[in-house]
Amino acid sequence: MTAARRALRLRAEVSADVPKTAMVMAAGLGKRMRPLTATRPKPLVEVAGKPLIDHVLDRLRTAGVENIVVNVHYLPGSVEAHLAAKAGGLNVTISDEREQLLETGGGLVKAAPLIHDDPFLVVNSDNLWIDGPADTLKLLASHWDSSRMDALLLLVPHARAQNHRGLGDFHMDRAGRLRRREKARIAPFVFTGIQIVSKALLRDAPEGAFSTNVFWDRAIEEGRCFGAVHQGLWFDVGTPKSIVETEAFLQNG
Fold first, then answer.
1. What is the 3-state secondary structure (H, E, C) of 216-234?
2. I need a surface site. Which of 100, 116, 234, 253 has the fewest CB within 10 A?
3. Interatomic CA distance for residues 183 and 215, integer angstroms
4. CA atoms of 244 and 7, how far apart (whole Å)
5. Which helix (H) or strand (E) holds 155?
6. What is the three-class DSSP state of 192?
7. Could you tell me if 52 and 235 are in contact, meaning their C-beta atoms sit under 8 angstroms apart?
8. 37-85 per-position pLDDT tens digit
9. Which residues pair with 219 in a beta bridge?
10. What is the C-alpha separation between 53 and 50, in angstroms, rounded?
11. What are the two backbone dihedrals, phi and then psi, of residue 132, each rounded to the nearest 5 degrees?
12. What percent of the chain is predicted at pLDDT more than 90?
């Protein structure tokens, strides 16, 4: 059995409480998705007949999430109007970044006072995944251990990261602890944009805009950043070309 299979393997049968609150990251500019994002934010770009953010909302509802905090910056009115029409029973709170785009880390810090659960989910709104043997978010939650973790990232093996053109993000040891990709080498795991985090991760945050990498790097150094392997499909939908590739895969698969 390989280290990847030993490390926090996701099981088909599991009973776990998914955090009731999710932070949905929806404030980005979507530059790589141009020209589709010239008149609409990336979360509202359609894939397989449905806006990207709706794919995420459906997964959150199914897993039992009740509250979402959504950050907005680019074309915020479009995102807010869409959520008002499509939230479908989810309680929505807006974290307003109209005045300054705060990136992923700064966005989390700004939204933290609006998040009343600890730990909580963080999900990129431009995410598209298909469950494996069981609900992905429940399986991820089954591995959360607040005594050992400040962050638990859902990872997909590099070879199964559909449309992904990068070199990967993380290495993972037998216990599931993460370390960064080594320079000039390919890392075996890609971050899916889905994670469970503790509010302790956000302590002593920098001011203004910054990446979540700042938090992850500290958690890695402290041995409190873990990964779990996604058992289903995951699609990197970052460009117009990748939409075509994703839709073709879904149609033919």
1. HHHHHHCCCEEEEECCCEE
2. 253
3. 20
4. 34
5. strand 151-157
6. strand
7. no
8. 999 999 999 999 999 999 999 999 999 999 999 999 999 999 999 999 9
9. none
10. 8
11. -90, -130
12. 78
Please, what sign has the CA dihedral across residues 16, 53, 122, 235?
A: positive
Residue 71, strand partner residues: 25, 95
Give the integer Cα–Cα distance in Å for 209 and 109. 10
- Element containing residue 108 per DSSP (H, E): helix 103-111
pLDDT tens, position by position, 100-128: 999 999 999 999 999 999 999 999 988 89
Supply the Cα-derived Rg of the chain in whole angstroms: 17
What does the alpha-carbon distance between residue 65 and residue 121 come to, in Å, rounded to a whole number? 9
pLDDT at 100: 94
CA distance 206 to 203: 9
* Widest Cα–Cα separation across the chain: 51
**CA distances (Å), origin 210, targets 18, 38, 39, 183, 213:** 27, 24, 26, 22, 8
| Identity of residue 246 | T
